[in-house]
Every structure is written in C-alpha cells, then in structure tokens.
C-alpha cells in the first residue's frame, strides 16, 4: 500500500506496526522541512505511545513548537510533523483545531488503541478510507487499496451518473463501493471495537443576507492586502527550492508579485500554453507578469499528442476525471519539478472574491424576465454552432439556456458536463440499478447553511464546498504530487478565507467588476494589461483536437462495438455525440473528453486491481 504512493514521497519511506498487530502505518516522504532522517515518518512521541503520519505543511508549527517546548516537550527534529505528535499528547484529537495549514493526518494512539484521521479545512490534501467487515484502511490515494485480496474494489453504479453530470464524483463518495473521502474540515476517530465517530471542526461561514459586518472600504482594502501578504509569506518556509505557477491571471500574478517583494532571489515561475488556439492560451500575459517582477520564467506549450498522457492521468486520479485541464496542470508540474520542489499557486482567489463569470451571470439572470430568457434561448438555438466553447456565442447560448431555471439548478447547468441529455446517455437498465439521480445532491448537506444567504454568498458557499474540493484541489494535488511537487495555495489560508467570507457582497462583485476589493488591494502591483483583462480560466481545446489530430483516436475508442461503456451508457447516444461533433453541428469537446476518460478507465481497471498479495 505504501509503495503504491512512491510518487508522492520518493525521498524516503517508513512503516510502523503496533505490538499486537492490530494497526499499521506506512509513509512515503517528500522532504521539505528538516531534510534529515530525524524528521522521517511515522513520527513517534517521546515515549512511542503516539505515532503520526502526515502529508502537507503546518504553517504555524514554529509557534506551536515554542509553546510545547516551554511546557516541557522535547523534540528530536525541526519538522512540523513532530509538533503534531506532541500536541496530540496534550489535547488528543482536539489538537487539529490548532493547526494552520494543509494536511491529511493519521495518528495512532497505542494506549487507547485508537486511530484519528483529520483533513484540512478547504480539502487541499486528500484522505480516503476503505471500511468493510473487520477492516479499516486509509490512504492519500485510492490506488493504495488496489490489488489487496482483503480490500476488494468494485465500481459503485450509483456514482456513474454523477461523474457525467459534474465530471467528477462529489465527495464523500467515490467511484468505488466501501471507499469514501474524509470530508474537508473533518476529523474521525476509529476505536478498536469498530466504533467510528466523525465531527466537523471547521466550516466556511458566510453572513446572512443583510448581516455582513460593517467594514469601511479603505480598511477592508488594507485588510485584504495584509492577509494575502501574510498568507504568501508563511508559505515561503522551505528547506528546498521554491517557485510559483504563473498563468497570467489576476490571482497568480498577485501571488508572484508578493513573492517577488518578500524573496531576496528572483522567483522561479512556470506557465503553459496551447499550440494553435489563442482562445486557450494565456502565456502572453504570463510573460508580462514575469517581466514586471523579473522572474526566472519557464514556459511550455502543449500539443495534441500530449493526450498520450490520458492513461497516466487516470492512474493518478484513480479513475476518470472530466476536467481536461488536468493535462496541462500535470505537464506544468513536471516542468516545474525539474527546478523546484515547492510551488505557490493562485488557486482559491476566484472562490473567495467571486471571480468566476458564472457568479456574475447568475446574479444577472435573477433579474431577467423568464419570458425574455426563453425567447433568447430559442433564437440562439437556431443560429449555426459557435467555433469553440469559449466564443461569445457559446457563452450566450449557455447563459440564456439556463437563465430561466431556479438559481441552484441554473448554477448546476452552467457547471455540468451532461445535463439535458444525462438521462438519454445512461442506459435505462443501468439507471435502474444506479438509482434516482438528484442533480442537486452535491449541496444537499449544505442546505441548512445555505438558507438565508444572499444570492452571491449562496453561490460562493456552494462552490467552496463542492467544486473547489472535488475538482480544482483534486486536479492540483494529483498533478503536482504525481511529480513529487508540493503545491501551496495562499488564497486558501484560513485567516484570509474567514476574513473574505465576511466582507459585503459589493466588495467582491461590484456590478460587472469581479474580485473588486482584491483588484483594489493590489492595484499598484498588477500590470494594467492583466488588471484590465477578463477571466479566461484554465481550459484545453479538446474540441479542436478531437476534430483534428485526435479524431481517429477518439473515434476508435468510442465507436468500437466492444467498448466497455456500452454496458452502462447508450451506444446510440454516444454515436450521435461523436457524429454531431465531427460534422460541426455541435461543440462537444468536454462531453467527449469525459467519455474517452471513462472508457479508458474501464479498460485499465482490471489490471489496476489485479491481486498482488
């Protein structure tokens, strides 16, 4: 199990087995803080009664360490892991409340015969568990469970329709029976008698409509700037080379700009673009930021033959993943790893400060008469199809098609891969086995906390608790850790999250101006060309690729009479999707990507799970 995760920790490994054989811990280490063997894991407490394995970084470990030493604890290393072990000795599972960072933690308490699992607040680090009769196993990635006779892996039919709805399976469920995620901001205790208790130790909190605390704009601008700067600064602690992803968007530009003012040496920056399609290429803006901050910049351009990496991406995601930007994220991570071991990213800025265009669109749609929205939708449907998914016509079609729907349905439609034709895609007999599809299931657990929020805060809350941990952070973690690269996200700093969430809506979305207060807070830092541009997003021109150099690959895979998906999905419907895309009557690149990934997964899974013990 441990060595299935060697890519996440190539520098050293360790294992611990309890004296009675009832528990075992394994760890693969990527050395970041304290490069000596003293910091290896599993990390014992002073008397060995507590053992810790931990993936991530604790940014306040020095303050915690100082306090623990003052109270008599003795340390053998300079690592953040050891602070967790000693803090557990004092506080038990409540120690998690004191940790500021990104983490997946497992603590074995020998005296109590108890296992404690905990995951960070935003869900930056993954943590899965397998629970069956007499067995409880956990890991950073599900592949650790593959190939064990005592941990049989079976596809969960109920998960499949949700993959095609979202492009991922919303947590805590996974593609597999008996395998679940520990939700973000959650700790679990597992006792020797099999009793499992879970509690949420942190939640994002948005103020009720009309109840946002008063905040003078000048003070809020200063507050945002100070907290972003602190968040970046605490993420610069490293004993190995450090750099940043630079997309050319507002958020990564701010992160790199702040880094350039805090670091003595030039920031090493990395960006990626696409051959032959400027609608998906931000490298020009990345170069502007790199020149402004005098970074040591490296750039890479992706060609369609990079699709050869699909099987690699599926392995690292432990199943299909419908976000095609996983491909360039993997490649830029590989590029960065040649020069650094840690990167800072701009992830989370859109979630905190309302950066996505769909947020602005949803507010606008709420003010639009339904009859007008319906008429516009009908008129646009009669026009020839747009050239690609990012054209103004494509955006207008998406907007008006969903504008008349209720707010939660509207947001789901705009973020969905398949929606209107989801029922037609899934075979009736498989749909009966999978059970009813609830398109709003991903926010059901949050309904009580969504009630009473303003329309914008409702959108931000739903996005923070679903799309962020289930798509963006999954993609970032798997792509970076596949290359033994650690990614840190300053915008997902706890203090910054809590501060930004409490700000008035108008400070985030001011008319058509997104991320208004963030822009104002760093107006002196961001180059005007970047400040003036709209949100592009990190996408891939798969639609053009499937009509070009990847046409044969896609057709051979999806039109094969013995394609594995045909036992679950309608072959006739998939055939029509392929034909419509190739003839140009529709742009279905994202839909075809999810199908290609799904089919390859079904072909690869038997080998992944072949018994090896």
Overview of the molecule:
It is globular, with a radius of gyration of 24 Å. The longest helix is centred in the C-terminal third of the chain and has 20 residues, at 589-608. Strands 3-4-5-6-10-11 form a six-stranded antiparallel β-sheet, covered by helices on one side. A five-stranded parallel β-sheet has the order 14-13-12-15-16, sandwiched between helices. It has a three-stranded antiparallel β-sheet with strand order 8-7-9, with no helix packed on it. Helix 5 (250-262) links the parallel strand 12 (242-245) and strand 13 (268-274). Helix 4 runs antiparallel to helix 19 (494-501), helix 8 (326-337) runs parallel beside helix 18 (467-481) and helix 12 (392-403) packs antiparallel against helix 13 (407-415). Helices cover 41% and strands 15% of the residues. 47% of the residues are buried. It is α+β, with helices and mostly antiparallel strands and 613 residues long.
What is the helical fraction, as a range of percent?
40-55%
Estimate what percentage of residues fall within beta strands: 5-15%
Query: Uncertain runs with pLDDT below 50, 5 residues or more?
Result: none
Give the class from helix and strand content and strand pairing.
Answer: alpha+beta
Report the principal-axis shape: globular
Radius of gyration: 24 Å
What strand order characterises the main sheet?
A: 3-4-5-6-10-11
Report the biggest beta sheet as strand number plus sense, adding barrel if it closes.
6 strands, antiparallel
Tally of DSSP helical segments? 26
End-to-end gap: 10 Å
